Amino acid sequence: MNVKLDQLKQSHVIVKDRLTNLLRYVILSVWAAATIGPLIWLLLSSVKTNKDLFSNPWGFPKSFTLENYVRAWEEAKLGQYFFNSVIVALAATFGTLAISAMAAYAFSRPRFRIPGKRVLFYAFIFGMMIPAFLILVPLFFLLEDLGLLDSRLGLILVYIAWNTPWTVFVLTGFFASLPSELADAALIDGCSEFGVFWRVMLPLAQPGLLTMGILAFLSSWKEYLFALVLIVKEPLRTLPVAISVLSDVAQYGADWVVLYAGLVIIMIPSLLAYLLFQGRIISGLTVGALKG
Amino acid sequence: MRNTLRRQRLVLGVTFLLPAVLLYGILVAFPAIKAFYVAFTSWSGVTPKMTFVGLANFRQLLQDEVFWQALSHNVFFLIVLPLLILPMAVALAAMLRGNIKGGNIFRMAFFLPNVMSVVIVSVLWLLIYSSRRGLLNGLLRAVGLGVLAKPWLGSGSTALPALVLTYAWHNVGYYVLLLRAGIEGIPEMLYDAAKIDGAGLWEQFRYITLPLLWQVVRICVVDLVISVMGTSLFGLVNVMTKGGPMHDTEIMTTYIYRLAFRYSMWGYAVSAGLLLTIIIFVISLASFRLMAREVVEF
After folding, report:
1. Looking at this predicted complex, what is its ipTM?
2. Helix-strand-coil split of chain A, %, nearest 5
3. Burial zone of A126 (CB within 10 Å; 0-12 exposed, 13-18 middle, 19+ buried)
4. Measured between CA atoms, how close is A104 to chain B, in angstroms?
5. A194 touches chain B (CB under 8 A)
């Protein structure tokens, strides 16, 4: 009698589970469609002509043209802004990694006895909580006084300064986990302290550096507020600002398809980076958020 | 030998720390301290003259109609966004548990919107919400619901929800990511034991996944709350509506931006920035405390 009841209960659970599973797939698929749908629409629209777009906003393109992409790159000068973004992001990334690795190394090894090192570290970390909108105006005037306003160099330095606390925090943990026996062995072999850093520790830290480098690059590539405020001259604009200006212009004019093509262009580097470095990006973001 | 090594270490240590400390000190810490000071002066920005006026700037802010409008919109986002995003993210993360066919495709699809920058997403949805050429109205018309088609970003009552939807689309993937990491930390053994006791998928979620995930949910809420007051939402609103129409979607960050860089009210903008900073600290602490639960040990 009990066995029969149990069997009944079990089959009841199995049916319920099958339904739940089906529901699960439906919901996940709906969400996936909602996520990819707009992107497909964007792609389809970017190869239409303006007339086609106007008469048929969300159907398949009646004709196929890549002219929009050419125009976005040249007429809308996205090629130039792309170049600006590349320079700024690359320089900011290298700068961030360089000074953060050095600082993280100094923070992480107890052999570097510097008075107030601990306080300095905590002040650094505490500084991560400073909101951008607090320093926005004073920073603007500071850069103006330093002659760095409206220049790519100024923006690069700001990005480095802004990315550093976070990068130092993660890299310090990384360096701290490296064994000091290797350093001692190298020192006995006549290596200088700098040599230990350059030849032993830094190569060992490569995975961490790569991950932080990718994150720093992506964050500089897509940054909007400082790029908007600190650069005024049109030729020096970075992509995020340029695309928002293009969007404003399209609203007054009628050339929409160029905007669609422009969007696709600007999306490509981010998508590529994601496809290539998916694992590192995800682990970098998760570790950061959950630890910090 | 010992002394030279010690000196070498001191020199190296200081030299290694110097660039980061200097750059950060000059470009971030210094402006922050300056902001604290300027907020209590009457600074026009044109002249370096600053006279101490105490709380006068803040009094002016509190009497500013637009300030209160902006703050109310921030509150709207603070309440609606977590209520919308987090249950969805928890549900999606839980649904991705275990081996499901196409799991990798789903996972990649979910994070895709977050990979794109705020500006890209904002312009994309600007196009989607467009009244004549947009995807949304196009879809509505195609299924015969054309009567529901509206100029979504053109009026305050529809613009705010529209912005909420866009922000959710952009960011759910990120929280799904964090929650998935949390779920991976739950031992499979617990689920196995529950299955033996006859627990189905729903019971497993309710009695195992949810309680053990709570600390991560808490982190997500605080993260979301802080980002509502930060650059991400600023980018979204500034690109999509610029705070309009007529301040209907104005939030504190767009208002500060406009005060400084459109109306040139520099000192006033700094005071607003300081007030914003204080608000951020207060609400992130409050939301963290409010969500405290007993930590479940397993």
Report:
1. 0.88
2. 80, 0, 20
3. exposed
4. 8
5. yes
